[in-house]
Design goal:
The complex is a heterodimer of chains A (557) and B (74). Chain A is α+β, with helices and mostly antiparallel strands and 557 residues long. Helix content of chain A is 35%, strand content 18%. Chain B is an alpha+beta fold and 74 residues long. The chains are: A alpha+beta (557), B alpha+beta (74).
Chain lengths: 557, 74
Amino acid sequence: MNEERLQTDVLIVGGGAAGLNAAITARESGQLVLIMDKAVIERSGHSAGGIDHFCAYLETGPDWDTREAYLDLTANSARGATDISVVEKVYCEELKGAIKRFDDIGCTLMRPDGSFFRTQSYGQPGPWYINFNGKRMKPLLAKAARDVGCRVLDRVVTGDLLVRDGEVCGAAGFHIREGTFYVIHAKSVLLATGGTNRLYQNPTGLSFNCWMCPANTGDGEAMAFRAGAKLANVEYLRMTVIPRGFSAAGLNALVGMGAKLVNGRGEEFMGRYDPLGMKGPRYKLVQGVLGELKAHRGPVSIDCRHLDPVGMRHLITTLGYDKDTLPDFFAQKNIDLTKDLMEIATSEGMQGGPSEVCGSGIKINQDCATNVPGLFAAGNSADQCRCLHMAVTSGIHAGRMASAYARCRVNPAPVSDQQVNEIRDRLFAPLEGTGSVSWHELEDVLQRTLAEGMGPVRSSWGMDKAWENLDLIDTWKDQVKAGDYHDLCRVQEVYNMMTVARCMIRAALFRQESRFGPCHYRLDFPETDDSKWLGQITVNRDQKGQPNTEFFPLTYD
Amino acid sequence: MPPVIEKDLCTGCGICEDSCPLDVIYMNEEESRPFIKYPEECWHCGSCRQDCPEEAITIRFPLRIMVSAGIIPY
């Protein structure tokens, strides 16, 4: 296969909302920037097809519209997972610049009259979600990144980081159609690869019918782990509430506009599960739906019929901004939200942070830096970031910090040929495989393993069993076969999911308590215990490459 | 097969191929027309349809989504 070697100042892995905001900031500060994405950056990542909300306090006067109120909610809703000192620097300090970035790229958050359309959900003390038309946000961000002079390698998936003397100095990957092997030397590397999806079976059996982007498979988390970086909050499993059959985004718009969950008896039941009822945290909505179904009070539906015509029009429009094809789904299922109840279900699980304001993944400090010199993270792949508001703010912040790091560093010497060859041999091995195990089969076995032992309800024996199964799957790796480079990308995705799964299991075993409802419920330790577990479990590799767990305490006022 | 490409309307410009975040759409070089190479890897994000300048793409949900049978909550 062909091999190409390139040099840059800042290498951005993943050209989604976080990565492109980082790239623009780093390039504007004068650094050479190279972006690698496994798709084409105009439509890659979770916001590829559109997005409809951005969470912000705007300091308009009321107590709920302040930085203090935001930090209060963050501390309360993600207690034990969120590091307030990081959120202040990464989100609060960058918020104004983030809102301006939307204007700069031509995708304003404002309505034509200059006002913001704001809605309230998920435990917020006031309407923090700005509704906007983000259907073209990605193409506009991509244009801005290209216009400012970022170099882009589209359809190049990153396989591993280059490390020299304990410092990250680049990455290597391959083109998912042509197979060209790329080796990039860089002064700093920023991971913005999103969260980890496709770990759990989809209720329909279609693995790619998932709530968040199915291309986001923990690639960044896995390569950071291999390079020695710490992960955090990875024990938490995340679910949402979806229209039955279609794992579409849109719950926030429904809740924000006043939709209600009702059970088979027509009862509004959320008051039984959270004092805020429908305005409670997302995981409580999931808990409520599961509770009603298990109590045989299904089916559970969303009721929008009481909305006034103006609100209904806004809702239907904004649902289409968040998931372009959701209106098609309604049409093909003959669902008319003005007249019908819409049956809902809980989504597939994913590895994700416990709330809308706290993430999971690569542990970052106030500079979006990891514990490995030269390596930064932003967006949904970073442990403190979640949703668009933190993708944009952390992207800008991480871009600035990775750029400052690069400015102070001379060009690193190339890594050894041995390191490059090892990465290439590992990445391309499934092309030479003589066995018959496809990535589909590998993914299916992984998903079944996690469903059995690592679902929302956990016990030590179930997790031990899942770990043993992963060991067994590893013994089949030499039987895995990829037919072409597209398949090879999928194989590497499943391998990365397996690495994240191992980190999940180790962290969940270590946390001998339950926290955040169905995000981490231990049958053998059913209570939340702040006296011992108010903080994060961090996971990093030991000398044998196995996950090593530690407790990182967090304090709250 | 979620995206359906209307061959009479399609001009073979190839924009949909680049729009797909999941590498699902490929060009048939002989016919100079796109086709859905990996239908089960579609995310139903609608990027291809939004970007098609000829409005030649519609979305048709697969049977497993339309019927969604056998859903067992955790």
